[in-house]
Write a structure and sequence with these properties.
Blueprint (H helix, E strand, L loop, with lengths): L1 H32 L10 E5 L2 E3 L18 H12 L4 E6 L2 E4 L2 H15 L4 E6 L1 E2 L1 H7 L4 E4 L6 E2 L12 H7 L2 E7 L7 H4 L5 H26 L3 H9 L6 E2 H7 L4 E2 L2 H11 L2 E4 H8 L10 E8 L14 H13 L3 E10 L1 E3 H15 L4 E10 L1 H6 L4 E4 L4 E3 L3 E7 L1 H6 L24 H25 L7 H7 L4 E3 H6 L5 E2 L2 H11 L7 E5 L5 H6 L5 H9 L4 H15 L2 E4 L6
Length: about 575
Amino acid sequence: MKKSGYFGIGCLTSLLLFVLVVFGSFYAVTKVAGGSVEKIGEKNILAIDLKGNVPEYSRLKNDRYIIDQTSVIDIITAIKQAKNDDRIYGLLLKPEMFICGYASMNEIIDALEDFKTSGKTIKAFVTIASNNDMLIASCADEVVISASSSAGVFLKGFGVDVTFYKNMFAKFGIKMNVISAGKYKDYGTQYTHDKITPEMKSNYNRILKSRYEQFVNQISQQLDISALTIESVVNNEDFMILNSRESLKVGFVDKIQYEIDFLKDIEGIFDTVLTSKKYLLAFNNKDNKNLYKKVAVLYLSGKIMPLQSDYSVLSANWVESAVEDILDDRTIKACVVRVNSPGGSAFESEKILKALTRLKAKMPVVISMGDYAASGGYMISCVGDVIVADPYTITGSIGVVQLIPELKELQSRLGIDHDKLEYGKKSTWLNPLNGLSQPQIEAYRNSANNVYDSFKKIVLKGRSEKFTSLEEVEAVAQGQVWDSISAKENGLIDEIGSLNDAIKIAVGKSTIKESFERVNYPKRRDFFELLLADKLGISEMKTLLFKGVSDDIYQQKVMFETLEKNSTQTLLPADFN
Protein backbone atom coordinates (compact mmCIF):
# COMPACT_ATOMS: atom_id res chain seq x y z
CA MET A 1 0.00 0.00 0.00
CA LYS A 2 2.85 2.36 0.77
CA LYS A 3 4.43 1.73 -2.60
CA SER A 4 1.09 2.34 -4.28
CA GLY A 5 0.73 5.65 -2.41
CA TYR A 6 4.22 6.76 -3.34
CA PHE A 7 3.56 5.75 -6.95
CA GLY A 8 0.37 7.86 -7.00
CA ILE A 9 2.13 10.88 -5.55
CA GLY A 10 4.97 10.43 -8.03
CA CYS A 11 2.55 10.30 -10.97
CA LEU A 12 0.76 13.42 -9.72
CA THR A 13 4.06 15.27 -9.30
CA SER A 14 5.24 14.20 -12.77
CA LEU A 15 1.96 15.34 -14.30
CA LEU A 16 2.21 18.71 -12.56
CA LEU A 17 5.81 19.16 -13.73
CA PHE A 18 4.81 18.18 -17.28
CA VAL A 19 2.01 20.77 -17.29
CA LEU A 20 4.39 23.43 -15.96
CA VAL A 21 7.04 22.58 -18.56
CA VAL A 22 4.53 22.66 -21.43
CA PHE A 23 2.95 25.84 -20.17
CA GLY A 24 6.37 27.38 -19.54
CA SER A 25 7.59 26.47 -23.02
CA PHE A 26 4.44 27.88 -24.58
CA TYR A 27 4.80 31.01 -22.45
CA ALA A 28 8.46 31.46 -23.43
CA VAL A 29 7.65 31.13 -27.13
CA THR A 30 4.79 33.61 -26.94
CA LYS A 31 6.96 35.93 -24.84
CA VAL A 32 9.56 36.01 -27.61
CA ALA A 33 6.89 36.27 -30.27
CA GLY A 34 5.26 39.08 -28.31
CA GLY A 35 7.98 41.43 -29.44
CA SER A 36 6.92 41.08 -33.05
CA VAL A 37 3.72 42.38 -34.62
CA GLU A 38 1.94 41.94 -37.92
CA LYS A 39 2.99 44.42 -40.60
CA ILE A 40 1.06 47.66 -40.52
CA GLY A 41 0.63 50.45 -43.01
CA GLU A 42 2.50 53.71 -43.16
CA LYS A 43 -0.39 55.83 -41.87
CA ASN A 44 -2.17 54.40 -38.83
CA ILE A 45 -4.48 55.52 -36.04
CA LEU A 46 -4.24 54.12 -32.51
CA ALA A 47 -7.53 53.28 -30.77
CA ILE A 48 -7.24 53.81 -27.02
CA ASP A 49 -9.22 51.34 -24.88
CA LEU A 50 -11.44 53.42 -22.57
CA LYS A 51 -14.09 51.04 -21.29
CA GLY A 52 -15.21 50.00 -17.85
CA ASN A 53 -13.39 50.30 -14.54
CA VAL A 54 -9.68 51.07 -15.00
CA PRO A 55 -7.24 51.16 -12.03
CA GLU A 56 -4.44 53.73 -11.95
CA TYR A 57 -1.74 51.08 -11.59
CA SER A 58 -1.74 47.31 -11.48
CA ARG A 59 0.99 45.03 -10.15
CA LEU A 60 -0.24 42.38 -12.56
CA LYS A 61 1.22 42.75 -16.05
CA ASN A 62 -0.94 42.16 -19.10
CA ASP A 63 -0.19 39.08 -21.14
CA ARG A 64 -1.94 37.59 -24.14
CA TYR A 65 -3.82 34.83 -22.37
CA ILE A 66 -4.41 34.94 -18.61
CA ILE A 67 -4.33 38.52 -17.36
CA ASP A 68 -6.18 41.14 -19.39
CA GLN A 69 -6.35 44.31 -17.34
CA THR A 70 -5.63 47.78 -18.69
CA SER A 71 -4.43 50.41 -16.21
CA VAL A 72 -4.17 54.18 -16.51
CA ILE A 73 -0.40 53.75 -16.76
CA ASP A 74 -0.89 51.48 -19.79
CA ILE A 75 -3.09 54.10 -21.47
CA ILE A 76 -0.59 56.90 -20.81
CA THR A 77 2.33 54.72 -22.00
CA ALA A 78 0.52 53.99 -25.27
CA ILE A 79 -0.21 57.69 -25.83
CA LYS A 80 3.39 58.75 -25.11
CA GLN A 81 4.79 56.00 -27.31
CA ALA A 82 2.43 56.89 -30.16
CA LYS A 83 3.49 60.55 -30.01
CA ASN A 84 7.01 59.63 -31.15
CA ASP A 85 6.04 56.75 -33.46
CA ASP A 86 6.19 57.89 -37.11
CA ARG A 87 3.71 55.18 -38.08
CA ILE A 88 1.00 56.61 -35.79
CA TYR A 89 -0.75 59.64 -37.29
CA GLY A 90 -3.49 60.04 -34.72
CA LEU A 91 -5.49 58.71 -31.77
CA LEU A 92 -9.04 57.40 -31.71
CA LEU A 93 -10.81 57.80 -28.38
CA LYS A 94 -14.00 55.82 -27.73
CA PRO A 95 -14.86 56.38 -24.06
CA GLU A 96 -17.74 54.12 -23.05
CA MET A 97 -18.80 54.05 -19.40
CA PHE A 98 -15.17 54.84 -18.60
CA ILE A 99 -14.59 54.69 -14.86
CA CYS A 100 -11.43 55.84 -13.12
CA GLY A 101 -10.55 58.45 -10.55
CA TYR A 102 -10.65 62.10 -11.59
CA ALA A 103 -7.02 62.58 -10.59
CA SER A 104 -6.09 59.62 -12.82
CA MET A 105 -8.24 61.17 -15.55
CA ASN A 106 -6.19 64.34 -15.32
CA GLU A 107 -3.02 62.32 -15.94
CA ILE A 108 -4.57 60.91 -19.14
CA ILE A 109 -5.67 64.41 -20.19
CA ASP A 110 -2.12 65.72 -19.64
CA ALA A 111 -0.79 62.93 -21.88
CA LEU A 112 -3.38 63.75 -24.57
CA GLU A 113 -2.52 67.46 -24.49
CA ASP A 114 1.16 66.56 -24.79
CA PHE A 115 0.35 64.26 -27.75
CA LYS A 116 -1.33 67.18 -29.55
CA THR A 117 1.94 69.14 -29.50
CA SER A 118 3.23 66.64 -32.09
CA GLY A 119 0.73 67.99 -34.61
CA LYS A 120 -1.06 64.65 -34.81
CA THR A 121 -4.84 64.46 -34.68
CA ILE A 122 -7.19 63.13 -31.99
CA LYS A 123 -10.70 62.00 -32.87
CA ALA A 124 -13.36 60.92 -30.39
CA PHE A 125 -16.60 58.99 -30.74
CA VAL A 126 -19.19 58.83 -27.96
CA THR A 127 -22.61 57.23 -27.52
CA ILE A 128 -23.83 58.14 -24.02
CA ALA A 129 -21.14 60.42 -22.61
CA SER A 130 -20.96 60.53 -18.81
CA ASN A 131 -18.80 62.93 -16.75
CA ASN A 132 -15.66 60.85 -17.35
CA ASP A 133 -16.39 60.18 -21.01
CA MET A 134 -16.97 63.87 -21.73
CA LEU A 135 -13.80 64.94 -19.91
CA ILE A 136 -11.71 62.61 -22.06
CA ALA A 137 -13.57 63.33 -25.33
CA SER A 138 -13.25 67.08 -24.84
CA CYS A 139 -9.49 66.74 -25.48
CA ALA A 140 -10.13 65.64 -29.09
CA ASP A 141 -9.83 67.86 -32.15
CA GLU A 142 -13.20 66.48 -33.26
CA VAL A 143 -15.93 64.87 -31.14
CA VAL A 144 -18.51 62.77 -32.99
CA ILE A 145 -21.66 61.51 -31.27
CA SER A 146 -23.79 58.58 -32.38
CA ALA A 147 -26.88 59.38 -34.47
CA SER A 148 -28.83 56.81 -32.42
CA SER A 149 -31.97 58.18 -30.75
CA SER A 150 -30.72 56.88 -27.39
CA ALA A 151 -27.32 58.63 -27.64
CA GLY A 152 -26.51 61.84 -25.82
CA VAL A 153 -24.56 63.57 -23.06
CA PHE A 154 -25.26 62.70 -19.43
CA LEU A 155 -23.54 65.13 -17.05
CA LYS A 156 -24.80 64.28 -13.57
CA GLY A 157 -22.75 66.41 -11.21
CA PHE A 158 -21.33 64.92 -8.01
CA GLY A 159 -22.87 63.14 -5.06
CA VAL A 160 -22.16 60.72 -2.27
CA ASP A 161 -24.29 57.71 -1.35
CA VAL A 162 -24.02 56.32 2.18
CA THR A 163 -25.67 53.02 3.08
CA PHE A 164 -26.67 52.70 6.74
CA TYR A 165 -26.82 49.31 8.45
CA LYS A 166 -28.00 50.22 11.96
CA ASN A 167 -31.60 49.03 11.58
CA MET A 168 -30.61 45.89 9.67
CA PHE A 169 -28.13 44.96 12.40
CA ALA A 170 -30.78 45.63 15.05
CA LYS A 171 -33.13 43.11 13.40
CA PHE A 172 -30.48 40.44 13.81
CA GLY A 173 -29.47 41.50 17.30
CA ILE A 174 -26.08 42.86 16.20
CA LYS A 175 -24.62 46.05 17.62
CA MET A 176 -21.54 47.83 16.31
CA ASN A 177 -19.77 49.94 18.91
CA VAL A 178 -18.02 52.88 17.24
CA ILE A 179 -15.46 54.78 19.29
CA SER A 180 -13.83 57.69 17.48
CA ALA A 181 -11.20 60.31 18.20
CA GLY A 182 -12.01 63.47 16.25
CA LYS A 183 -15.38 65.24 16.12
CA TYR A 184 -15.74 64.78 12.35
CA LYS A 185 -14.24 61.30 12.15
CA ASP A 186 -17.41 59.63 10.95
CA TYR A 187 -16.29 56.28 9.59
CA GLY A 188 -18.53 53.76 11.34
CA THR A 189 -21.48 56.16 11.46
CA GLN A 190 -23.21 53.92 8.92
CA TYR A 191 -23.44 51.27 11.67
CA THR A 192 -24.79 53.56 14.41
CA HIS A 193 -27.10 55.97 12.54
CA ASP A 194 -29.79 55.78 9.89
CA LYS A 195 -29.03 59.03 8.03
CA ILE A 196 -26.25 61.51 7.33
CA THR A 197 -25.21 63.42 10.46
CA PRO A 198 -24.52 67.21 10.58
CA GLU A 199 -20.77 66.46 10.85
CA MET A 200 -20.89 64.23 7.76
CA LYS A 201 -22.90 66.87 5.89
CA SER A 202 -20.33 69.55 6.72
CA ASN A 203 -17.47 67.33 5.56
CA TYR A 204 -19.11 66.06 2.39
CA ASN A 205 -20.59 69.33 1.12
CA ARG A 206 -17.15 70.94 1.11
CA ILE A 207 -15.78 68.15 -1.10
CA LEU A 208 -18.80 67.91 -3.41
CA LYS A 209 -18.84 71.69 -4.01
CA SER A 210 -15.12 71.72 -4.80
CA ARG A 211 -15.32 68.77 -7.22
CA TYR A 212 -18.41 70.17 -8.93
CA GLU A 213 -16.80 73.56 -9.53
CA GLN A 214 -13.55 71.99 -10.72
CA PHE A 215 -15.40 69.75 -13.20
CA VAL A 216 -17.60 72.52 -14.61
CA ASN A 217 -14.64 74.87 -15.06
CA GLN A 218 -12.52 72.13 -16.67
CA ILE A 219 -15.19 71.19 -19.23
CA SER A 220 -15.84 74.89 -19.86
CA GLN A 221 -12.17 75.57 -20.67
CA GLN A 222 -11.63 72.46 -22.80
CA LEU A 223 -14.76 72.95 -24.94
CA ASP A 224 -14.94 76.75 -24.78
CA ILE A 225 -18.50 76.64 -23.44
CA SER A 226 -19.63 78.96 -20.66
CA ALA A 227 -19.79 77.49 -17.17
CA LEU A 228 -23.40 78.70 -16.86
CA THR A 229 -24.38 76.69 -19.95
CA ILE A 230 -22.79 73.55 -18.56
CA GLU A 231 -24.49 74.03 -15.19
CA SER A 232 -27.85 74.45 -16.92
CA VAL A 233 -27.35 71.04 -18.56
CA VAL A 234 -26.25 69.38 -15.32
CA ASN A 235 -29.17 70.76 -13.32
CA ASN A 236 -31.99 70.54 -15.90
CA GLU A 237 -34.47 68.00 -14.54
CA ASP A 238 -36.62 67.96 -17.70
CA PHE A 239 -34.42 65.32 -19.28
CA MET A 240 -32.03 62.58 -18.20
CA ILE A 241 -29.75 62.71 -21.22
CA LEU A 242 -29.14 65.66 -23.55
CA ASN A 243 -29.82 64.14 -26.99
CA SER A 244 -27.39 64.27 -29.90
CA ARG A 245 -28.97 67.27 -31.63
CA GLU A 246 -29.08 69.36 -28.46
CA SER A 247 -25.53 68.29 -27.60
CA LEU A 248 -24.42 69.58 -30.99
CA LYS A 249 -26.22 72.90 -30.44
CA VAL A 250 -24.66 73.40 -27.01
CA GLY A 251 -21.18 72.61 -28.37
CA PHE A 252 -20.40 69.36 -26.56
CA VAL A 253 -19.86 67.61 -29.91
CA ASP A 254 -18.89 68.63 -33.44
CA LYS A 255 -20.76 66.08 -35.54
CA ILE A 256 -23.58 63.51 -35.46
CA GLN A 257 -22.92 60.22 -37.25
CA TYR A 258 -23.65 56.51 -36.91
CA GLU A 259 -20.64 54.57 -35.64
CA ILE A 260 -20.41 52.37 -38.74
CA ASP A 261 -20.17 55.44 -40.98
CA PHE A 262 -17.69 57.10 -38.62
CA LEU A 263 -15.40 54.04 -38.73
CA LYS A 264 -15.67 53.88 -42.55
CA ASP A 265 -14.46 57.48 -42.70
CA ILE A 266 -11.59 56.60 -40.36
CA GLU A 267 -10.63 53.60 -42.48
CA GLY A 268 -10.69 55.82 -45.56
CA ILE A 269 -8.09 58.14 -44.02
CA PHE A 270 -5.82 55.68 -42.20
CA ASP A 271 -4.29 52.37 -43.31
CA THR A 272 -4.87 50.52 -40.03
CA VAL A 273 -6.77 50.99 -36.78
CA LEU A 274 -4.51 49.56 -34.04
CA THR A 275 -5.79 48.72 -30.56
CA SER A 276 -3.78 50.06 -27.65
CA LYS A 277 -3.51 46.61 -26.01
CA LYS A 278 -1.91 44.98 -29.07
CA TYR A 279 0.25 48.06 -29.60
CA LEU A 280 1.64 47.88 -26.06
CA LEU A 281 2.23 44.13 -26.19
CA ALA A 282 4.10 44.50 -29.48
CA PHE A 283 6.23 47.50 -28.58
CA ASN A 284 6.59 47.12 -24.83
CA ASN A 285 9.89 48.52 -23.50
CA LYS A 286 11.09 49.56 -26.96
CA ASP A 287 11.75 53.10 -25.72
CA ASN A 288 13.67 52.04 -22.59
CA LYS A 289 16.57 54.47 -22.46
CA ASN A 290 18.65 52.60 -19.83
CA LEU A 291 19.97 55.89 -18.54
CA TYR A 292 22.23 56.08 -15.52
CA LYS A 293 19.93 58.45 -13.63
CA LYS A 294 16.41 57.40 -12.74
CA VAL A 295 13.36 58.68 -10.89
CA ALA A 296 11.19 56.03 -9.26
CA VAL A 297 7.42 56.42 -9.09
CA LEU A 298 6.05 54.23 -6.31
CA TYR A 299 2.30 53.62 -6.62
CA LEU A 300 0.54 53.12 -3.27
CA SER A 301 -3.13 52.48 -4.04
CA GLY A 302 -6.04 50.93 -2.17
CA LYS A 303 -7.28 50.56 1.36
CA ILE A 304 -4.50 50.00 3.89
CA MET A 305 -4.90 46.47 5.18
CA PRO A 306 -2.57 43.88 6.80
CA LEU A 307 -3.25 41.29 4.09
CA GLN A 308 0.21 40.27 2.97
CA SER A 309 -0.52 38.50 -0.29
CA ASP A 310 -3.59 40.37 -1.55
CA TYR A 311 -2.57 42.36 -4.62
CA SER A 312 -5.62 44.68 -4.50
CA VAL A 313 -4.98 46.31 -1.10
CA LEU A 314 -2.17 48.43 0.27
CA SER A 315 -0.13 46.49 2.82
CA ALA A 316 3.25 47.14 4.46
CA ASN A 317 4.53 43.76 3.33
CA TRP A 318 4.73 44.60 -0.36
CA VAL A 319 5.54 48.29 0.24
CA GLU A 320 8.65 47.25 2.20
CA SER A 321 9.61 44.92 -0.66
CA ALA A 322 9.17 47.72 -3.23
CA VAL A 323 11.28 50.10 -1.10
CA GLU A 324 14.05 47.49 -0.97
CA ASP A 325 13.93 47.18 -4.78
CA ILE A 326 14.28 50.96 -5.14
CA LEU A 327 17.15 51.17 -2.65
CA ASP A 328 18.94 48.30 -4.42
CA ASP A 329 19.05 50.31 -7.66
CA ARG A 330 21.79 52.89 -7.15
CA THR A 331 20.88 54.69 -10.37
CA ILE A 332 17.62 55.89 -8.74
CA LYS A 333 18.24 59.39 -7.42
CA ALA A 334 14.74 60.47 -6.36
CA CYS A 335 11.34 58.94 -5.67
CA VAL A 336 7.80 60.19 -6.21
CA VAL A 337 5.25 58.34 -4.07
CA ARG A 338 1.84 58.35 -5.73
CA VAL A 339 -0.68 57.96 -2.90
CA ASN A 340 -4.22 56.99 -3.79
CA SER A 341 -5.69 55.64 -0.56
CA PRO A 342 -8.61 56.48 1.74
CA GLY A 343 -6.67 54.94 4.66
CA GLY A 344 -7.35 51.82 6.71
CA SER A 345 -5.45 50.09 9.50
CA ALA A 346 -3.63 52.57 11.76
CA PHE A 347 -0.94 50.03 12.64
CA GLU A 348 -0.33 49.14 8.98
CA SER A 349 -0.20 52.84 8.04
CA GLU A 350 2.60 53.44 10.54
CA LYS A 351 4.54 50.46 9.16
CA ILE A 352 4.28 51.89 5.65
CA LEU A 353 5.34 55.30 6.96
CA LYS A 354 8.44 53.74 8.51
CA ALA A 355 9.36 52.03 5.23
CA LEU A 356 9.03 55.32 3.34
CA THR A 357 11.11 57.07 6.01
CA ARG A 358 13.96 54.67 5.19
CA LEU A 359 13.61 55.70 1.56
CA LYS A 360 13.67 59.39 2.45
CA ALA A 361 16.97 58.92 4.30
CA LYS A 362 18.61 57.96 0.97
CA MET A 363 16.96 60.28 -1.57
CA PRO A 364 14.42 63.09 -2.02
CA VAL A 365 10.84 61.86 -1.64
CA VAL A 366 7.97 63.87 -3.13
CA ILE A 367 4.33 62.92 -2.59
CA SER A 368 1.85 63.03 -5.46
CA MET A 369 -1.71 62.66 -4.23
CA GLY A 370 -4.30 60.95 -6.42
CA ASP A 371 -8.05 60.98 -5.80
CA TYR A 372 -7.68 60.07 -2.13
CA ALA A 373 -4.87 60.64 0.33
CA ALA A 374 -6.99 60.71 3.43
CA SER A 375 -6.70 59.42 7.00
CA GLY A 376 -4.04 56.67 6.87
CA GLY A 377 -3.36 57.83 3.30
CA TYR A 378 -2.49 61.26 4.65
CA MET A 379 -0.40 59.77 7.45
CA ILE A 380 1.92 58.04 4.98
CA SER A 381 2.06 61.25 2.90
CA CYS A 382 3.62 63.16 5.79
CA VAL A 383 7.01 61.62 4.91
CA GLY A 384 7.28 63.79 1.78
CA ASP A 385 9.74 66.65 1.34
CA VAL A 386 6.97 68.24 -0.74
CA ILE A 387 3.30 67.24 -1.06
CA VAL A 388 1.60 67.85 -4.41
CA ALA A 389 -2.15 67.22 -4.72
CA ASP A 390 -4.33 66.94 -7.80
CA PRO A 391 -7.18 69.50 -8.11
CA TYR A 392 -9.63 66.65 -7.41
CA THR A 393 -7.75 65.18 -4.41
CA ILE A 394 -9.62 64.47 -1.17
CA THR A 395 -7.26 64.61 1.80
CA GLY A 396 -7.06 65.18 5.55
CA SER A 397 -9.45 63.08 7.67
CA ILE A 398 -6.88 63.07 10.48
CA GLY A 399 -8.59 61.00 13.14
CA VAL A 400 -9.06 57.49 14.48
CA VAL A 401 -12.02 55.17 14.84
CA GLN A 402 -12.46 51.79 16.51
CA LEU A 403 -15.19 49.35 15.49
CA ILE A 404 -16.10 46.67 18.02
CA PRO A 405 -18.97 44.32 17.10
CA GLU A 406 -21.29 43.04 19.85
CA LEU A 407 -23.36 39.86 19.41
CA LYS A 408 -24.86 39.50 22.88
CA GLU A 409 -28.45 40.14 21.76
CA LEU A 410 -28.06 37.83 18.77
CA GLN A 411 -26.98 34.88 20.92
CA SER A 412 -29.91 35.51 23.23
CA ARG A 413 -32.40 35.44 20.35
CA LEU A 414 -30.91 32.22 19.05
CA GLY A 415 -31.13 30.61 22.47
CA ILE A 416 -27.38 30.29 22.81
CA ASP A 417 -26.10 30.22 26.40
CA HIS A 418 -22.70 31.65 27.17
CA ASP A 419 -20.63 31.68 30.34
CA LYS A 420 -17.04 32.57 31.16
CA LEU A 421 -14.19 32.17 33.62
CA GLU A 422 -11.53 34.84 33.92
CA TYR A 423 -8.01 35.11 35.27
CA GLY A 424 -7.15 38.70 34.41
CA LYS A 425 -9.85 41.35 33.99
CA LYS A 426 -9.29 41.76 30.23
CA SER A 427 -9.02 38.07 29.36
CA THR A 428 -12.43 37.92 27.61
CA TRP A 429 -12.74 41.48 26.33
CA LEU A 430 -12.27 40.57 22.67
CA ASN A 431 -15.16 38.10 22.61
CA PRO A 432 -18.13 39.81 20.84
CA LEU A 433 -20.55 37.57 22.77
CA ASN A 434 -19.77 39.32 26.05
CA GLY A 435 -20.81 42.86 25.18
CA LEU A 436 -19.00 46.01 26.32
CA SER A 437 -18.98 47.37 29.86
CA GLN A 438 -18.41 51.05 30.59
CA PRO A 439 -14.78 50.40 31.72
CA GLN A 440 -14.16 48.62 28.44
CA ILE A 441 -15.61 51.53 26.44
CA GLU A 442 -13.38 53.97 28.31
CA ALA A 443 -10.35 51.75 27.73
CA TYR A 444 -11.05 51.61 23.99
CA ARG A 445 -11.57 55.38 23.94
CA ASN A 446 -8.21 55.92 25.66
CA SER A 447 -6.55 53.71 23.06
CA ALA A 448 -8.18 55.64 20.22
CA ASN A 449 -7.07 58.95 21.73
CA ASN A 450 -3.50 57.66 22.09
CA VAL A 451 -3.38 56.69 18.41
CA TYR A 452 -4.96 60.04 17.48
CA ASP A 453 -2.31 61.92 19.48
CA SER A 454 0.42 59.91 17.72
CA PHE A 455 -1.18 60.70 14.34
CA LYS A 456 -1.11 64.44 15.10
CA LYS A 457 2.53 64.21 16.18
CA ILE A 458 3.38 62.53 12.86
CA VAL A 459 1.68 65.42 11.06
CA LEU A 460 3.50 68.00 13.19
CA LYS A 461 6.87 66.35 12.49
CA GLY A 462 6.29 65.88 8.79
CA ARG A 463 4.75 69.31 8.23
CA SER A 464 6.95 71.27 10.63
CA GLU A 465 7.29 74.14 8.13
CA LYS A 466 3.52 74.65 8.23
CA PHE A 467 2.60 73.79 11.83
CA THR A 468 4.37 74.83 15.02
CA SER A 469 2.16 73.15 17.64
CA LEU A 470 -0.26 70.28 18.15
CA GLU A 471 -3.00 72.86 18.70
CA GLU A 472 -2.51 74.10 15.14
CA VAL A 473 -2.70 70.53 13.85
CA GLU A 474 -5.84 69.90 15.91
CA ALA A 475 -7.58 72.82 14.18
CA VAL A 476 -7.34 71.06 10.79
CA ALA A 477 -7.62 67.51 12.17
CA GLN A 478 -10.64 66.09 14.07
CA GLY A 479 -11.47 63.92 11.05
CA GLN A 480 -12.20 66.91 8.82
CA VAL A 481 -11.95 66.18 5.09
CA TRP A 482 -10.42 68.77 2.75
CA ASP A 483 -10.30 69.55 -0.94
CA SER A 484 -6.99 70.57 -2.53
CA ILE A 485 -7.53 74.32 -2.36
CA SER A 486 -8.52 74.22 1.32
CA ALA A 487 -5.69 71.77 2.10
CA LYS A 488 -3.14 74.14 0.60
CA GLU A 489 -4.57 77.09 2.51
CA ASN A 490 -4.42 75.24 5.84
CA GLY A 491 -0.92 73.79 5.31
CA LEU A 492 -1.72 70.11 4.73
CA ILE A 493 -0.20 70.20 1.23
CA ASP A 494 2.33 72.38 -0.59
CA GLU A 495 1.25 72.51 -4.22
CA ILE A 496 -1.69 71.71 -6.49
CA GLY A 497 -0.53 69.92 -9.61
CA SER A 498 -0.07 66.70 -11.55
CA LEU A 499 2.14 63.65 -11.15
CA ASN A 500 4.46 65.16 -13.77
CA ASP A 501 4.73 68.32 -11.64
CA ALA A 502 5.73 66.15 -8.67
CA ILE A 503 8.37 64.40 -10.80
CA LYS A 504 9.84 67.77 -11.84
CA ILE A 505 10.05 68.83 -8.18
CA ALA A 506 11.75 65.54 -7.25
CA VAL A 507 14.29 65.96 -10.06
CA GLY A 508 14.99 69.51 -8.87
CA LYS A 509 15.76 68.24 -5.38
CA SER A 510 18.03 65.44 -6.64
CA THR A 511 21.50 65.28 -8.16
CA ILE A 512 20.02 64.75 -11.65
CA LYS A 513 21.24 67.43 -14.03
CA GLU A 514 20.60 65.76 -17.38
CA SER A 515 18.13 63.33 -18.97
CA PHE A 516 16.63 60.68 -16.73
CA GLU A 517 14.53 57.57 -16.99
CA ARG A 518 11.27 57.05 -15.09
CA VAL A 519 10.75 53.62 -13.53
CA ASN A 520 7.51 52.46 -11.90
CA TYR A 521 7.16 50.42 -8.71
CA PRO A 522 6.12 47.95 -7.45
CA LYS A 523 7.52 45.94 -10.34
CA ARG A 524 4.84 44.50 -12.58
CA ARG A 525 4.83 40.76 -13.07
CA ASP A 526 2.71 38.52 -15.22
CA PHE A 527 0.94 35.39 -14.04
CA PHE A 528 3.72 32.93 -14.82
CA GLU A 529 6.45 35.09 -13.29
CA LEU A 530 4.44 35.25 -10.07
CA LEU A 531 3.88 31.51 -10.19
CA LEU A 532 7.59 30.76 -10.60
CA ALA A 533 8.47 33.21 -7.85
CA ASP A 534 5.99 31.46 -5.54
CA LYS A 535 4.22 34.78 -5.11
CA LEU A 536 0.84 33.76 -6.48
CA GLY A 537 -0.74 31.67 -3.75
CA ILE A 538 -4.25 30.53 -3.03
CA SER A 539 -5.20 33.98 -1.66
CA GLU A 540 -4.40 35.66 -5.00
CA MET A 541 -6.50 33.14 -6.88
CA LYS A 542 -9.36 33.74 -4.43
CA THR A 543 -8.93 37.48 -4.89
CA LEU A 544 -8.96 37.30 -8.69
CA LEU A 545 -12.10 35.14 -8.62
CA PHE A 546 -13.93 36.97 -5.83
CA LYS A 547 -13.41 40.43 -7.28
CA GLY A 548 -15.34 39.38 -10.34
CA VAL A 549 -18.50 39.01 -8.23
CA SER A 550 -18.88 42.52 -6.83
CA ASP A 551 -16.30 45.10 -5.84
CA ASP A 552 -18.56 46.40 -3.06
CA ILE A 553 -19.03 42.91 -1.58
CA TYR A 554 -15.31 42.26 -1.94
CA GLN A 555 -14.40 45.48 -0.08
CA GLN A 556 -16.79 44.60 2.76
CA LYS A 557 -15.16 41.15 2.94
CA VAL A 558 -11.69 42.72 3.12
CA MET A 559 -12.78 45.23 5.77
CA PHE A 560 -14.20 42.59 8.12
CA GLU A 561 -11.12 40.41 7.67
CA THR A 562 -9.05 43.43 8.72
CA LEU A 563 -11.22 44.24 11.73
CA GLU A 564 -10.60 40.70 12.96
CA LYS A 565 -6.91 41.59 13.20
CA ASN A 566 -7.07 45.24 14.28
CA SER A 567 -10.15 47.27 15.26
CA THR A 568 -8.32 50.63 15.11
CA GLN A 569 -8.83 52.28 11.73
CA THR A 570 -7.82 55.54 10.05
CA LEU A 571 -10.20 55.43 7.11
CA LEU A 572 -12.33 57.74 4.96
CA PRO A 573 -16.03 56.89 5.43
CA ALA A 574 -17.48 57.06 1.91
CA ASP A 575 -16.76 56.98 -1.81
CA PHE A 576 -17.40 60.20 -3.73
CA ASN A 577 -18.79 59.99 -7.27
